[in-house]
Amino acid sequence: MAEAAVTRTLNATPDALWRLVSDFADLSWLPGGGAGAELEGSGPGMVRILAGPGGRIRERLEAVDEAARTVTYTIPEGVPFPVTGYRATMQVSDDAGRARLAWSCRFEPAGAPEAEAAQAIETMYGVMMGWIEERLQR
User: Fold this and answer.
1) In this predicted structure, what is the pLDDT of residue 22?
2) Element (H, E) at 56
3) 130 by DSSP, 3-state: which?
4) Is residue 28 exposed (0-12), middle (13-18) or buried (19+ Cβ within 10 Å)?
5) In order of start, what are the domains of the chain with their CATH numbers?
6) Which of 88, 84, 78, 71 is CA-nearest to residue 38?
7) What is the C-alpha to C-alpha distance for residues 35 and 72, in angstroms, rounded to an integer?
8) Would the CA dihedral through 52, 53, 55, 59 be positive or negative?
9) For residue 54, what pLDDT is reported?
10) pLDDT in tens, 44-102
11) Taking the CB of residue 97, how many other CB atoms lie within 10 A of it?
């Protein structure tokens, strides 16, 4: 299994960041507020379906750990990266009163070298962290 990860301290409180990312149904941080997204179910096992560049992306919530402040999800269908077996974790922590977000995943490269796949994921994590920070500052 290969890995990709990005960690960034955001201009927000850890509690505010945790409230946002732990609510898997809240897509307000996406451009357009997640308009057009579909939700199936609730809690672990729920699925959110998003429009992606190559079609529909199905993200499945695997676990929410309140104590560790982690959210784990998979993308069983429509992975927007050249990978299979995508499993990601978002972890929120405190960095001197500011929110620190560590976003990581494990995957198997598929159709691209491992380094290229990891770079694509890390670039997208950076973009999405920017969207999350912008949402928290509204």
Assistant:
1) 97
2) strand 55-65
3) helix
4) middle
5) 2-136 (3.30.530.20)
6) 78
7) 23
8) negative
9) 81
10) 999 999 988 788 999 999 999 999 999 999 999 999 999 999 999 999 999 999 999 99
11) 7
Q: What is the predicted pLDDT for the residue at 52?
A: 83
pTM, two decimals, is 0.96
Q: In a 3-state reduction of DSSP, which class is residue 41? A: coil
Question: What average pLDDT score do residues 101-111 get?
Answer: 97
Instruction: List Cβ neighbours of 121 (8 Å cut-off, separation of 6 or more).
Output: 4, 81, 83, 105, 107
SS (H, E, C) 63-115: EEECCCCEEEEEEEECCCCCEEEEEEEEEEEEECCEEEEEEEEEEEECCCCHH
Residue type, 57: I
Structure tokens at 35: 């308009």
CA distance 91 to 87: 13
